Model the fold of this input.
Amino acid sequence: MNTANLIQAKARAVSTTGESGCLNATNWYALARAISEASFDHDLMNRVATVRKLVRGRIVFTTSFGIEDQAIAHAIFRQTLGIEVVTIDTGRLFPETYELWTQTEHRYGRRIPAVYPDRVSVESLVAGQGIDGFYTSRSARRACCAIRKVEPLQRALAGAAAWIAGLRQDQSDERADILFAAVDAHHQLIKVNPLFDWTRERALSFIREHGIPYNSLHDRGFASIGCAPCTRAIAPGDPEHTGRWWWEHEQKKECGLHHNHYLRTQRPARS
Done:
């Protein structure tokens, strides 16, 4: 039996599911280790296909249409994998992002459904802090992210066995320790980062090699693209997240979607 088959056999042995289809919590850590072993294959197409083979149950990939997400979407759509591809439409995205959304659907002949913030919550937020109240304080910005991003993500991932994200270790210091696969206890699933060990240059090379559509803002100095009011272009050589929430002076800048990057593949020791 070759290495790939051994990994698949190991994963099947631990990825038992209950009647609801959810992953048995007692086997989360073993499955995460088995999936991580698949990272020996550096080919993105193989990595994503292997995740689909190893994980029983529903897998969700959330895309924000960045270069990493476009690469992963290509691997999913070109191989017709049974992985749900969804996006979170905060209501404050760039026009260029919506254009790319349409281009991507046309390129692959697939609809990419959106999850939207709760209308009542958004109305209450704007009534309380104003349309751009997130500029006033970090807590106000986090409140906006919680309503427009975090809560919709929780709905998108409800009942999923695995979540695929486009995180890379070199995107920021906070993401330096992410793994190919790890247990996300908060969402009660396995979180998979197929590009965890890729550089930005490698992701761009993949995009160019396969002629994958990408956001035109990248050609204008935008490295990390989120909501329009919270994103700006950066100078060459600046860290990628410098252009996000630039008015905040804290070193750690996250929106709350990826609130814990240090989840281990082994069950933590009991105290």
Observations:
- Residues 6 and 34 are 9 Å apart (CA to CA).
